[in-house]
Amino acid sequence: MEKPLAGGKKSTLLLFALSINPHAQVVADPPPLEFRYGVSQIPNYELKYPADFPHFGYLNADAPKGGTLVLPWLNPLNTASPMYQPPGFYRSYDHLIERAGDEPAGYYGSLAESIALSADRRRIVFRLRPQARWHDGRPITATDVKFSFETFRADKMAHGWAGALGWITDVNIVNPHTVEIRADSDVAKQLFILGYTPIVPAHYWRDRDVREPLTTPPPQSGPYRLTRVSQGRYLTYERVPDYWGRDLPVNRGKFNFDTIRYERYLDATVAREALRAGLLDVWTETDSRHWLKSYDVPARDQGWLVLGTLASGNQSGSRYRLALNTRRQPFDDLRVREALFSALDFEWQIRALHGGELTRAASFFADSMFASSGLPGEAEKTLLEPHRAHLPAKVFTHPFSFPSTDGVGVDRDGLSRASALLAQAGYRVVDGVMVNDAGEPFVIEFLSFLRDDQRILLPYVHSLSILGIEANIRMIERTGYYNRRRNADYDAVLVGGGIEVPPSWELRPSFHSSSTLYLNASGLNDPAVDAMVEAALSATHLDEFVSACRALDRVLLWNYYQFPLDALGDTRIVYWNKFGRPDLPEEMYVAPFPDGWWFDKETAARMGSPKVTIP
User: What is the pTM of this model?
Assistant: First the structure.
């Protein structure tokens, strides 16, 4: 007797259909899912680590446990709720997958024991580890995973989660330890945000208002437990010695401090003084002036205070982008946007404000394989050609480049180009004021709540004033700033310019016309941009993915929607030399800080740095 076709009753129905109509098209059953220990954003990518790997090779699996790490926090400390992402919350909740720091796109099971992608890459299924537990002893189940993603997708806190998770179409519980996530595009492109989203306990939050702030820590599950909360002052996390996942390969060598404490500081100036006084252990320095001048102190000469770097190859692009609101006139005019771009003398800022320490980001994906350069290749042309009529002609004929200046004074060439472009757009100077045909002055307001933004914007405001443009910086408090951003009530803003490598969740919320304006800072509504974003997110081969991102880069650059500023480099840190750090390979994408560091008792004893304990 012949064996029945796989599929049982469904196959019998197909045979019956063929007997009636021998020309009927047979739709085969989808291939069974193949569960693996790891997964990648890049199609056909070979994971670096085998299924039986003991730990990530860049970590010290025998790192000692103990000690305290004190870190600064400059934003408000008003709630212990993970919904509001307080500092350190990432370590007190489990995550489905963990990214390896020493390879470009490898993710390995953490809370998930195994992962499977469907053949069309629109579904991802996670099998959870049955031993996973909340700190209160209850098991972590698919119900918790479903609740977490649906809660963050709803984004009642308006923190941007809706845009980050908007690609999810459904979350289904297969059984108590298996959950399926469906997407409207290649779900593997979204592994970063899948790994970043914390899994929170449904049994605690289901009957609570997630928008309410908390001062009492809720149930957690991760390697650390938030134990003390002082509103506006500090948060304290304690290592969980019997953490259920302490021996997982993705965790060995990590989470070595007994205590991690986040101290609240009102501004960076006070935080730097606290570091020099020994009240803080590590400070991330983003200001080139202070990096060059502020740490020439005796403690550094003695080797106690160290200036170092952390690899940040997991992000590309720029530290900041200047975004124009294209839903407002005159910023909907390409000529006006290019004119404003031409008036920005970034070389002067690098020399005068940053001591020559920075370089300009020449791409939205600078310093990665996804950055465009030269003329578009054939694959890019194929993507761009259907939109030729609506694209600047130079997209096809000229490599994009930033105008270069000597950086020593007024950039007369750039201002001359800007003036000519504004004239083409119908502007002229009358009595020193740039006006349109109706006699209305050209006014641009830069919206911000951060004092550091003024340092970037003030020289630019001066250049615009030379053109006769009335430019000003509007400083408002944080809540008002976010409200105006949500309501598109601004002309221009500075936004963070970092994009994950490989590009993933940011593409649609940042650039697609379907995105809410808060994340889509320029209010983009460009069919060519939409098409390139969709092509990137739907690509099933690496070369297609790269070509789509490069084509997107060209469309964004030549339309001057946003101006990339300084390129992202390695993260610069200043720290007290009382810690052990693992020996890292030369090619490192994500530095294991602070999770891979440990407290070195002998070094700390020799150093004898000051330390004040705050109750």
Answer: 0.87
274 near 262, Cβ under 8 Å?
no
Q: Copy the structure tokens of residue 137.
A: 């002893």
Mean pLDDT of the chain: 90
Task: State pLDDT tens for residues 324-383.
Answer: 999 999 999 999 999 999 999 888 888 877 777 788 899 999 999 999 999 999 999 999
Helix (H) or strand (E) holding 532: helix 527-538
Sheet holding 234-239, edge to edge: 68-73, 259-264, 234-239, 224-230
Query: CA–CA separation, 49 vs 593, rounded Å?
Result: 21
* Residue whose pair of structure tokens reads 């870190």 in the numeric block: 71
Q: In the structure encoding, which two tokens stand for residue 558, read together? A: 């030549």
Model confidence band, residue 455 (pLDDT cutoffs 50, 70, 90): confident
d(CA 493, CA 473): 10
Nearest to 550 by CA among 344, 316, 355: 316
67: left (phi over 0), alpha (psi -120 to 50) or beta: left
Contact 108, 98 (CB under 8 A): yes
Q: What pLDDT band is residue 160 in, cutting at 50, 70 and 90? A: confident
* Contacts for 445 with CB less than 8 Å, ≥ 6 apart: 471, 472, 473, 474, 490, 491, 492
